[in-house]
Amino acid sequence: MYECLGCKQVYYSFVGSNIAHHYTPLTRPEPLFQAYEPAEELVELAEQLLNNEFNSVAEHEEVLTRALELSLQDSVRIWLATRL
Q1: CA distance 55 to 70
Q2: Residues 18-77: pLDDT tens digits?
Q3: How buried is residue 57: exposed, middle or buried, by Cβ count under 10 Å (0-12/13-18/19+)?
Q4: Which residues pair with 29 in a beta bridge?
Q5: 11 and which of 17, 35, 54, 80 could share a cystine (Cβ 3.0–4.6 Å)?
């Protein structure tokens, strides 16, 4: 969802929230996820994605791109799609 609410821009990405959900302990209370020790930069980017803290679509794309790069470097599992 990309919309303007008054003068405040809101940029939301389902994929962005998945970064926090699958690659950090931010949203999952289970011991498996709480044991994750992601890079601090990844945690910061995941929080930014969760909180929709962007000033533009371009900034959102930059944050998401960097978070995806870090999640692949630091992940304890990699999610694959076998069909598109």
Answers
A1: 22
A2: 888 888 999 988 898 888 899 999 999 999 998 888 888 889 889 999 999 998 887 777
A3: exposed
A4: none
A5: 54
